[in-house]
Structures are given as structure tokens and as C-alpha cells.
């Protein structure tokens, strides 16, 4: 489909956005309002014209219509007045709720999960990304087929119909299950190839650093600025979908691999996390995770919590991490010291500041390469000298009598594994012991 056809089709999506706030939800009014604002941005990212937002308060969701009969009538009136053709809900709907809402409102019904999946369908460019998105869409839609009656016959296209599209959804469940199995097999092959690349990187001894963070926190901008990479950078949600790896030089001259990953978001669909696990595994394999945070975001703490939860779910919660508070130039000076307090190691930067990027490179280097140590090794000990070069970054090396004397910035993990083999040659450790005895 050419761009003109796509733009014309997207322009037809005119939507009213609806959020339900219940007393059983473990979130504040501010969180609910932020989630609805985020839904507006998601809709706009998908090419939807947002006409109005509505909020309903109930004890619990209505089993039939989600928001209750009275609110459905009110929504119907607003849809007719505004000439909307779509209603987008901030929460996930069941198939029955979609069917009942379609019958009552006679417009396309989309929920938050389907909207996010639709955006991912737009963004997927590589074979891996396309497979992952279609797998997530089919996994989400399979149990809801009975609730998409009118949606499947709306030939105008637009949100909710990208990716698998109407033809696949109109086929029977058996065909969709077979397609899911086929996609999983294709994805397994992609995962196998990705693992081979990771294994080669591991064997080469190259450090791997993963950029993770909430969507639109500035990860792609950092990748581009740190590595001079030719990557797509745009101020929109999920501007980058497929992972991008580039080589980056540390101040010492040592090269590492820096990888950008897909952005996280509130209520990221579980089907999507499952499908994109192969992509997000980059965080698991990394020697260091850079958690990029939008300092100027109103709900910064909540965004950081979402990222922490997804990393825990991926099994990467205990990884070495450096929190990077980005976009400091957008935060009023009075708030910078007061608000930005984080656990663990963190650095405050502006991605467009060369000085800040240099400080970030030094911080990454310290995290990866650790402390400086001095080793004195007899010239004839070739295996030990080789180990010195493997265990860290040799800053200086000189002949001193019958020995080689090395100044080394030691990698903490490698030293923990193999440092005992160098203990007899560690001058810095001997010096520390002597100072302790004195």
C-alpha cells in the first residue's frame, strides 16, 4: 500500500476515547488520567483523529457493556453528534463486550491492546518484527473471534485491521491455530540465528550494553549520538520497533556493542511481551543495562516502575544497571536536584550535549571495566600475560627487569571468575594488604 493510500485511510478514523475507573483498581485518579492521556498519544500515533475523551467511574466493570448501559447511551449520543466512527477503550475488552458495544453503538470498537498491536503492525519492517507482530495479534484475537462480527465486515480499513487483516480473522480457529504454530516455528529459527550472533559476540569478548526504557525516553537518539548510527529518530511512541546494534568506542579506545530495544509502556500486552521476548532477550544477554528515563515526564516514577517490572518478567532484574536520566534540558533547574533521586548508580544528561555524552561514556567504561590494578608478571609467563589482557583493558605495559608490569582496568565479572589465577601477581592487592597491616 502506498503512503497516499495509507494516509487517506487513516484519516477516516475519527474516534471517541473511553476510560473506566473502578474502585477495585490499584491506581490513583492521577494514574488513570495519565493512562488516558497516553491513550490519546497512542491513537494519534496510529493515525486516528481524536474527537473527545470520556471517563466512567464504577465499582466494577459491567460484564455486558464494560461501562454500563447508561454510559453507553451517553457515548452513543456523543458519537452521533461528533460523527465518530470508532470508539477506543483504555482497557482490554472481552469478545462479548466488543460484540455488545458494536451492536449498541454501530461503530468500530478497539481496546488499548489492539491499538498497541496495530501500531506495532505499522512499525514492523524486518522479517522478525513482522512475524512477532502477527503472532501477537493472532494470539490476542483468537479467543475473541466471536466478538468481532461487524469489525470484520468494515471494509474501510484503519486501526484494528492492519497485520493479519480481515481475511485471516474470517477463517476458522483451526486455521489460525495452525498459523500460530507456523509463526512460532519461524520465530524459533530467528531466535536460533540471533543466539548464534550473541554467542559469537560472547566468544569475541566484546561487551554488550542494552538500552532499555519507556517508549519515547530518547533511546534511539542516544544510540545515534553515541555511535553515529543511521537510525530512525522521531518524537512519537514506538518510533523504533526492531532492535538495532551498533559499535561504540569507550574513552579507552575499547569497542563495545550498544543495542537499542523496543520501548516499554503501561499495560504492554502480554501477548506482545511473549512474541517480542527474542528481541527483549538482548537485555538478558547484556553485560550492562542502560535504563533511559525521560526526566521531564510527568509520571516519571511510574514509567520507571513499568520498566523494572518488564525487566523482572524477562529475568533481567538483577543485571548490572546504570540509570540515565535523559532530557534534563526540559526539566526546570529547581526540580533537577529535588526530584531526581534514584536507587543505585545514575547519571543526568541531555542527549544533545557532547560533554554529557562524554561523561556517559566514562560512566559506562567504569561500570564495565571496573577498578585499576597493577600486575607484575615474569616475562616467561606467557599464559599469565595472556590472561592479563583477557581480564581487562591494559592501560600501560612496560618491562621492569625480568618482569612485565601492567596497569589494567579490570572487568569486575571476569576478575570474579579468574582473578584468583592472578592473585600471586597482583601488586595492587599486596599494597592494599600492606596498608591494612600498617
Automatic annotation (TrEMBL):
UniProt-listed PANTHER family: GTP-BINDING PROTEIN 6-RELATED, GTP-BINDING PROTEIN HFLX
UniProt cross-references to InterPro entries, sorted A to Z: G_HFLX_dom, GTP-bd, GTP-bd_M, GTPase_HflX, GTPase_HflX_N, GTPase_HflX_N_sf, P-loop_NTPase
Main localization (coarse): cytoplasm
Alphabetical list of Gene3D superfamilies matching this protein: 6.10.250.2860, GTPase HflX, N-terminal domain, P-loop containing nucleotide triphosphate hydrolases
Pfam families named among the record's database cross-references: GTP-bdg_M, GTP-bdg_N, MMR_HSR1
Function: GTPase that associates with the 50S ribosomal subunit and may have a role during protein synthesis or ribosome biogenesis.
Annotated transmembrane regions: none
Hflx-type G domain residues: 207-372
Coiled coil: none
UniProt-annotated location(s): Cytoplasm
The encoding gene: hflX
Subunit structure: Monomer. Associates with the 50S ribosomal subunit.
Superkingdom to which the source organism belongs: Bacteria
Keywords in alphabetical order: Cytoplasm, GTP-binding, Magnesium, Metal-binding, Nucleotide-binding
Family affiliation: Belongs to the TRAFAC class OBG-HflX-like GTPase superfamily. HflX GTPase family.
Protein name (Swiss-Prot/TrEMBL): GTPase HflX
Amino acid at each position: 500500500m502506498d503512503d497516499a493510500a495509507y494516509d487517506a485511510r487513516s484519516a477516516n478514523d475519527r474516534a471517541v476515547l473511553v476510560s473506566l475507573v473502578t474502585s477495585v483498581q490499584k491506581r490513583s485518579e492521577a494514574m488513570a488520567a495519565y493512562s488516558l492521556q497516553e491513550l490519546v498519544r497512542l491513537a494519534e500515533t496510529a493515525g486516528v483523529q481524536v474527537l473527545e475523551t470520556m471517563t466512567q467511574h464504577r465499582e466494577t466493570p459491567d460484564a455486558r457493556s464494560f461501562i454500563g448501559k447508561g454510559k453507553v447511551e451517553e457515548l452513543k449520543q456523543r458519537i452521533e453528534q461528533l460523527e465518530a466512527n470508532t470508539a477506543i477503550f483504555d482497557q482490554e475488552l472481552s469478545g462479548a463486550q466488543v460484540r455488545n458495544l458494536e451492536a449498541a453503538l454501530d461503530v468500530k470498537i478497539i481496546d488499548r491492546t489492539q491499538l498497541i498491536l496495530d501500531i506495532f503492525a505499522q512499525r514492523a519492517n524486518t522479517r522478525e518484527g513482522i512475524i512477532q507482530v502477527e503472532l501477537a495479534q493472532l494470539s490476542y484475537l483468537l479467543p475473541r473471534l466471536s466478538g468481532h462480527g461487524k469489525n470484520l465486515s468494515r471494509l474501510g480499513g484503519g486501526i484494528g485491521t492492519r497485520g493479519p487483516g480481515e481475511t485471516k480473522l474470517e477463517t476458522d480457529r483451526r486455521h489460525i491455530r495452525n498459523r500460530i504454530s507456523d509463526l512460532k516455528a519461524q520465530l524459533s529459527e530467528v531466535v536460533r540465528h540471533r543466539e548464534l550472533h550473541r554467542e559469537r559476540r560472547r566468544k569475541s569478548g566484546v561487551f554488550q550494553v542494552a538500552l532499555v526504557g519507556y517508549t519515547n525516553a530518547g533511546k534511539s537518539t542516544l544510540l545515534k549520538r553515541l555511535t553515529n548510527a543511521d537510525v530512525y529518530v522521531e518524537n512519537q511512541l514506538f518510533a523504533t520497533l526492531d532492535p538495532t546494534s551498533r559499535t561504540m568506542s569507550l574513552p579507552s579506545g575499547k569497542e563495545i556493542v550498544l543495542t537499542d530495544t523496543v520501548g516499554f509502556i503501561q499495560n504492554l500486552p502480554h501477548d506482545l511481551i511473549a512474541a517480542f521476548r527474542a528481541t527483549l532477550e538482548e537485555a538478558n544477554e547484556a553485560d550492562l543495562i542502560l535504563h533511559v528515563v525521560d526526566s521531564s515526564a510527568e509520571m516519571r516514577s511510574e514509567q520507571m516502575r513499568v520498566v523494572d517490572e518488564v525487566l523482572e518478567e524477562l529475568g533481567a532484574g538483577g543485571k548490572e544497571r546504570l540509570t540515565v536520566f535523559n532530557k534534563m534540558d526540559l526539566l526546570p533547574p529547581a526540580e533537577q536536584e529535588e526530584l531526581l533521586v534514584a536507587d543505585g548508580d545514575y547519571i543526568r544528561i541531555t542527549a544533545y550535549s557532547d560533554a554529557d555524552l562524554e561523561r556517559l561514556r566514562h560512566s559506562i567504561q567504569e561500570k564495565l571495566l571496573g577498578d585499576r590494578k597493577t600486575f607484575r608478571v615474569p616475562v616467561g609467563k606467557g599464559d599469565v600475560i595472556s590472561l592479563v589482557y583477557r581480564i581487562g583493558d591494559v592501560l600501560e605495559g612496560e618491562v621492569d627487569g625480568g618482569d612485565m608490569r601492567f596497569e589494567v582496568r579490570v572487568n569486575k565479572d571476569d576478575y570474579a571468575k579468574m582473578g584468583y589465577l592472578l592473585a600471586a601477581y597482583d601488586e595492587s592487592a599486596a599494597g592494599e594488604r600492606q596498608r591494612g597491616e600498617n
